[in-house]
Write a structure and sequence with these properties.
single chain; 239 residues; alpha/beta; Carbamate kinase; nine-stranded mixed beta sheet; two-stranded antiparallel sheet; 19% strand
């Protein structure tokens, strides 16, 4: 098999990627499948950090749209991310992968506080690190948390897992049958065209720090390993 071309990556998983066929919540089979993909890459010597969303449990924006204070809604979303992080940690450890959860909100009974140097040490020791609770601040999405953590711990690439789409398109392919697939694009072009790669704050962070983004379909269980080995999969967003 080809050797990995990346030493350290950050994998961004949406909450929906853990739902499987359910309408909400976490599907145990899907959770095991995601953990198996991470284990396969980890066993090849790649240091893996993970940032999760919480769309399978709670969406802060949805709560705000329903009349809730935006900051309160966002904090509820951060706590929901902690739930997903603990579930993924359990699935990984059942497959023999040493895992640490670091939370941006203090929940010391179940997770370590986020400390950058400690996170990097965990990665160096071969542990998968799951960053929970977003950035710890309202008004920032889990996409921004993924970009920020990837830059902070010196990841070489950010892998953005999508559900049911192969990468970035000119429009939403589920709504527009004429949407065209984009194999490669610059950060600046994606910003100017307002393509749905990630939120604009996160995309700007990646651009300013020359962090490449691989947007790919999570449904294909080989894709993470293929990207790590240097194969072109999905859409590459680069400077």
């Amino acid at each position: 098999m080809p050797q990995p071309v990346f030493r350290r990556i950050l994998l961004k998983l949406s909450g929906e990627s853990l739902m499987g066929s359910l309408e909400f919540g976490t599907d145990p089979e899907r959770l095991r499948a995601v953990a198996a993909q991470v284990k396969h890459v980890h066993d090849r010597g790649v240091e893996v950090a993970i940032v999760l969303g919480a769309g399978n449990i709670y969406r802060g924006m949805a709560g705000a749209a329903a009349g809730m204070d935006r900051a309160t809604a966002d904090y509820m979303g951060m706590l929901a991310i902690v739930l997903n992080a603990l579930a993924l940690q359990d699935a990984l450890e059942k497959q023999g992968v040493n895992t640490r959860v670091q939370s941006a909100i203090h929940v010391q009974e179940v997770a370590e506080p986020y400390i950058r140097r400690r996170a990097m040490r965990h990665l160096e020791k071969g542990r998968v690190v799951i960053f929970a609770a977003g950035t710890g601040n309202p008004f920032f999405t889990s996409d921004t948390a993924a970009a920020l953590r990837a830059i902070e711990v010196h990841c070489e690439a950010l892998l953005m897992a999508k559900n049911g789409v192969e990468g970035v398109y000119t429009a939403d392919p589920r709504e527009d049958p004429d949407a065209e697939f984009i194999a490669e694009i610059t950060h600046m072009d994606a910003l100017q065209r307002q393509l749905k790669v990630m939120d604009l704050t996160a995309l700007t962070l990646c651009m300013e720090n020359d962090l490449p983004i691989y947007v790919f379909n999570m449904d294909d269980e080989r894709n993470i390993d293929r990207i790590v080995c240097g194969e072109r999969v999905g859409t590459l967003v680069t400077t």
